[in-house]
Amino acid sequence: MGQHRKVRKAVFPVAGLGTRFLPATKAVPKEMLTVVDKPVIQYVVDEALEAGIEHLVFVTGRGKGVIEDYFDIQYELEQTLKERNKKAELTLLSGILPKAGMASFTRQQEPLGLGHAVWCARDIVGDEPFALLLPDMIMRGEKGCMKGMIELYDQSGGNVIAVEECHPDQAHKYGIVGVGDAIGSGFRITGMVEKPAKGTAPSNFFINGRYILQPEIFSILETQERGAGNEIQLTDGMLKLAASQDFAGYHFKGETFDCGAKDGFILANVAFALERADIRPTVEEPLKQLLAALKG
Ligand code: UTP
Fold first, then answer.
1. What pTM does this model have?
2. Residue 287: its pLDDT value, please?
3. I want to staple 207 with a disulfide (CB 3.0 to 4.6 A). Which of 14, 147, 175, 252 is the partner?
4. 126 CA to middle of ligand 1, Å?
5. Sign of CA dihedral 202, 208, 214, 218
């Protein structure tokens, strides 16, 4: 155990158009929408750092420059805070800042699909396994999803995909995996299918937006043709890779919120607000009243 090459880098593809969240995403990237008081991307970066990731790779696009600014020093703001002796706020800001040289940004000039966005990171990632975190999916659980995946990877090596259980009626909305024998604390993935027709899903385990992939995926994505939605699909590339490499499933025991969709984003705000000791007392009762008024 532990003989597998270390996962040091994490890729965050933030170049999508976010059309499900228009008009908000016309001028603000969906990754910068706030859940309680932090942009969505901050939750995802924190999950990667908690898992021991050492280098952050952002695949950005037009109009996403604000993400780069968010992870940089805001000199004027910090100067003003210093002058006003706002120590707590300064500490908060310095906590967000990645160490110098720890973050890389590259551009996907055209949003040709998730598979293409991942391929854009090939030179920065190089020839080593990497984590991939979809930056609009945020998670709540006892243990960070990527942390648990790296623990499984230390046993299994190969590629790892995180999955979560959904109601069988909902399986047609997701990417679903087939479940095989145990590998370490996870299981062998025997197949993957995007949005299976109702009643045909091989299991209720859906892919929740977290992956550990071997670098061989890049040469596959290089020649990957457009698939569903006329986009270069990561799943198509992973299916090809699965012909020569193992994929293990990591069963994440928690809850994922798809913040790229309005309902998921609203639920994330409610769920994370209710977890906060400073916010819950003033939110819980009015929320209950709102729900009661709806019933009445
Ligand atoms: P999504 O399909 O959820 O994102 O892709 P989208 O295309 O921005 O959203 P909608 O469907 O139009 O609302 C999953 C992730 O892959 C990134 C997105 O930014 C998102 O985080 N992505 C997608 C890219 O970086 N490039 C692409 O070409 C497509």
1. 0.94
2. 95
3. 175
4. 23
5. positive
CATH superfamily name and code, 9-260: Spore Coat Polysaccharide Biosynthesis Protein SpsA; Chain A (3.90.550.10)
Instruction: State if residue 249 touches ligand 1 by the CB under 6 angstroms criterion.
Output: no
Tell me the domain boundaries of the chain: 9-260, 261-296
pLDDT higher than threshold 60 for residue 2:
no
Instruction: Tell me how far CA of residue 207 lies from CA of 156, 194, 284, in angstroms.
Output: 18, 9, 31
Q: Is 94 in the pocket of ligand 1 (CB under 6 A)?
A: no
Residue nearest to atom 9 of ligand 1 (CA): 18
CA distances from 76 to 67, 80, 81, 82 (A): 18, 6, 9, 10
Average of pLDDT values for 11-32?
A: 91
DSSP-derived 3-state class of residue 293: helix
Q: Provide the pLDDT for residue 89.
A: 87
**Which amino acid would we find at residue 118?**
V
Q: How far is CA 277 from CA 174, 256, 281, 283, in A?
A: 34, 21, 7, 11
How many residues would you count in the chain? 296
Q: Give the position of tokens 């659980």.
A: 141
